[in-house]
Design brief:
- The chain is built from 6 helices and 5 strands.
- With 148 residues, it is of the alpha/beta class.
- The chain is elongated and about 90 Å long.
- About 18% of the residues have low confidence.
Length: 148
């Protein structure tokens, strides 16, 4: 085989490999885009006290997962108490529709209940779920109003 013919063959192979690589890359990017958008649609938004207050002013439904006795001592105005051991699809459906914005909170930053409840709400089809990680203590620290 002559040098010129070998060079032609190598170039053809590179062109085919390049085309194949382009196709594989596009397929991978397409798959990632689909996965990312579906993840984006199924993730809750984590909010701080300021954003929680804004959502409160916009009539989001606040779900307080704390024990009833602590809820009765003080809570975010208008919040609905569903203690974590009673939180399920039925109890949530009784107080909020799947289209409404809901803010889920509990004892504060080291409490995983509101994180778990937010994820459950998403699996049940709720679309506007906000996880207020720092919860009631952050609301108090910000000096926002409470009721009992």
């Amino acid at each position: 085989m002559k040098y010129h013919d070998a060079l032609k063959l190598v170039r053809a192979m590179i062109d085919k490999a390049s085309s194949l690589l382009t196709i594989v890359t596009l397929l991978a990017l397409s798959a990632c885009a689909t996965t990312d958008s579906s993840i984006e649609k199924s993730r809750y938004s984590m909010v701080d006290a300021t954003t929680a207050k804004t959502l409160h002013e916009r009539d989001a439904v606040f779900i307080d997962l704390r024990l009833r006795s602590l809820f009765d001592q003080g809570h975010i105005p208008g919040a609905i108490n569903i203690p974590v051991n009673h939180f399920n699809n039925n109890t949530l459906a009784e107080v909020v529709s799947k289209e409404q914005a809901i803010v889920i909170y509990c004892y504060g930053m080291h409490c995983e209940y509101s994180n778990q409840a937010s994820n459950k709400a998403l699996t049940w089809g709720y679309r506007n779920v906000y996880y207020f990680m720092k919860g009631y203590p952050a609301w108090l620290d910000a000096g926002y109003p409470t009721e009992s």
